[in-house]
Amino acid sequence: MEDFCKSSLFYSDQHLCYAEILPPSEVRARIEVAVLNFLRTLISPNPSISSLPLINRRSNNRRVSHGLLTDVSSIFLSHSFCARSLMKANATKAFVRVWKVMEICIELLVHEKKVTQRELFYKLLCSSPDYFTSQLQVNKTIQDVVAFLRCSRYSLGIMASSRGALIGRLFLQEPNQEIVDCSTCGSSGHAITGDLNSLENLVIKSDARYIIVVEKHAIFQRLAEDRIFNQIPSIIITAKGYPDIATRVLLHRLTRALPDLPIFALVDWNPSGLAILCTFKFGSITMGLEAYKYACNVRWLGMRGCDLHLIPEQSFIPLKPWDLQIAQSLMSSEMLQENYREELTLMVQSGQRAEIESLHFHGYDFLGKYIATKIVQSDYI
Amino acid sequence: MDGIVRVVFQNFELKSTSPIIRTNAGEEMSRRGSSSNPCDLLKKIKEFTRCLLEDLRRGRSPSVTLNRYRIYCTDPSGKCCCSSDLHMGKEIVSLQKECHAYRLDVLLRVLLIIQQLLQENRHGSKRDIYYMHPAVFSEQAVVDRAINDICILLECSRHNLNVVAVGKGLVMGWLKFFEAGKKFDCINSPSKAHPVPVFVEEVEGIVSVAQYILIVEKEAVFQRLADDRFCDTNNCIVITGRGYPDVPTRRFLRLLIENLCLPVYCLVDCDPYGFDILTTYRFGSMQMAYDAKFLRVPEIRWLGAFPSDSKKYGLPERCLLPLTAGDMKKAEAMLLRCYLQREAPKWRSELEMMMQRGVKFEIEALSASSISFLAEKYIPSKIQGGGYI
């Protein structure tokens, strides 16, 4: 283990490992260092190809840090390493794949271009057909590069689309752009840019008292149309499903700029909804390295077990096998707090799930009243 | 067919002041715009309900006649009348049959909810409506059919009923417009994406200096063009439906074409699904067949990707993926559509060529040799060189 620690080129003294968003020059420097290091071992008196030390992404290396002074807990990966070794016959190709991807990344960084993972697949398919045959291999190799260089995919030049939108009592200003008043945005809200660098440098001004994170686009549109953010002074944000990195970065930025605002989540009552909430709260379970920095203290406002009496029996839908799988993986992670665990158990036991739209049974006004009541009564966990 | 369209209630004649009856097709189309505002729709709903009540009062079994619409059939003789925008027969829903009784029950409940939406000037989604009476509506599809039936009955489009969905489309380029008073000015940053407005009827003041409109199938391609700053160097508007286009995207596209009269090009993957999306833009979808004439874009031209492009632009063999059994089945079904032979024979031959070669490829494959190939070479050369059909 000691040797592995030493052989990691970056941050070998830290137990907590994460992937940063770095400027292109820094990423190029890291790749160059990696190459030089590799060449050095080749020309040394006893040449031996070392294994590539990558942060172990398996669940046994996942840890949760509980904030001491804050209520923020987050997932991170510890410094346990696994190796991509050239010596093992079946792992040779995996070793070479990492270098092939880094080769393309350097090219992208030099030309200041970005690609999607699919485009990267086609490029690799043409340039190195012996090593890459499927999109899955490319995705895994990208994760390997992230684990090796400790920088995020975005820094390597891999585009990610941003699906998020927000609306509410907020003034945003991107550097050198006009001020955007997010309360006059129309029912589709203000689209969150995928440019993570500009998100980090946003100027934020707001008189809202709460931040409400909404799972589904349909609910976002309903709240936007009803202008809930004027009745309950708030900022409403959605990632339209599982949160992408841009939405998480923005939410994190909002909490830093407006630290007194509590964040409430409005998700469907099913394991996916809870998983989405947990991703905002702790970080992504699968993207351990990119998770850490953007965890926020999100509280579960609804729908919860205590609200189920509000909807008629026929509005419940049976859980699918996929839901049960998600429930199982959530249960097995140690970061899930006790009260969330109880809710999850209730979901699985009842075998049913419910959508937020089912509250419309009581009329279109009901959703706004439901949210307001819950906030006022501090009914969140 | 003399093109008379009317809604007939069994044993009942509507008063001639009602705008629905005894108008010929041409008048009906121009009247559609005027008789689709909320006041007129509410009047129509009242009239419809009154007729049903009359029937019940007189001890007659009420029934509703609905027109059936379709945009294509599989008749190879070319003698079908799918190209006219008229209905293909009628369907009579009455209380005589039990399944019809359920359908009528659902229709009336949904009509009540829609009446409320119109009266309160609120919008709702199809899902919201489903949840209002989950005990009666056994599943979402039941509500969807009722909404379609009501659109046919009241001779309006779905958005006139204040039933909306979330917006999926994105637009960028040399375009400026107002949506409910708020200005969307893409001109200052032409490579910045804006969501396509959902309430298309509130869009006004469209101004543009673009020379053409480019539709792309996938969001990934849209982002590639945004990242390459395609609109900075090419004077155009780029729009994507992110897969099968939703109704707001199609309506917005129609609005742009009607206001700006620009050529429209479409860029899809060279596979059966890409082709299906292309035909959806051009001819419309079966689901919204009753509204097809307001949603389709007959002026659209297929820019790419063609099966022949793979050789012409030197696409490596490895990037060609084999057509699956599902792909072949879909392609065969599409070949039978009557409108292809009649109105787009060149499109049909390209589809046949695709099936013969047994391979497909994605637009992203064109970037394999050079990232900016799509934005810098492929699209401009095709447009200037007339490489579209």
The dominant shape of chain B is: globular
Shape of chain A: globular
Tally of individual helices of chain B = 15
What integer is the average pLDDT of chain B? 83
Could you say how many structural domains of chain A there are in total?
2
Tally of individual domains of chain B:
2
Q: Give the low-confidence spans of chain A.
A: 1-7
What is the terminal separation of chain A in angstroms?
A: 40 Å
Question: Can you give keywords for this protein?
Answer:
heterodimer, A: 381 residues, alpha+beta, Arc Repressor Mutant, subunit A, Dna Topoisomerase Vi A Subunit, Chain: A, domain 2, 2 domains, 6-stranded mixed sheet, 42% helix, B: alpha+beta, 15 helices
Question: What is this structure's SSE topology?
Answer:
The complex is a heterodimer of chains A (about 375) and B (about 400).
Chain A: H1 2-7, H2 24-43, E1 52-55, E2 62-66, E3 73-77, E4 81-84, H3 92-111, H4 117-127, H5 135-149, H6 153-156, E5 165-168, E6 170-173, E7 179-181, E8 190-191, H7 196-200, E9 203-206, E10 210-214, H8 217-225, H9 228-231, E11 234-238, H10 245-257, E12 263-266, H11 271-282, H12 288-291, E13 298-302, E14 317-318, H13 321-332, H14 338-350, E15 352-353, H15 366-376
Parallel strand pairs in A: 10-11, 10-12, 12-13
Antiparallel strand pairs in A: 1-4, 2-3, 5-8, 5-11, 6-7, 6-9, 14-15
Helix pairs in contact in A: 2-3, 3-5
Chain B: E1 4-5, E2 23-24, H1 25-34, H2 38-57, E3 63-67, E4 90-94, H3 98-120, H4 126-132, H5 140-154, E5 170-173, E6 175-179, E7 182-185, E8 194-195, E9 203-208, E10 212-216, H6 219-227, H7 230-233, E11 236-240, H8 247-260, E12 264-267, H9 272-283, H10 292-295, E13 300-304, H11 309-312, E14 321-322, H12 325-335, H13 338-343, H14 345-357, E15 359-360, H15 373-385
Parallel strand pairs in B: 10-11, 10-12, 12-13
Antiparallel strand pairs in B: 1-2, 3-4, 5-8, 5-11, 6-7, 6-9, 14-15
InterPro entries (chain A): Spo11/TopoVI_A, Spo11/TopoVI_A_N, Spo11/TopoVI_A_sf, TOPRIM_Topo6A/Spo11, WH-like_DNA-bd_sf
Protein name (chain A): DNA topoisomerase (ATP-hydrolyzing)
GO biological process, one term (chain A): DNA metabolic process
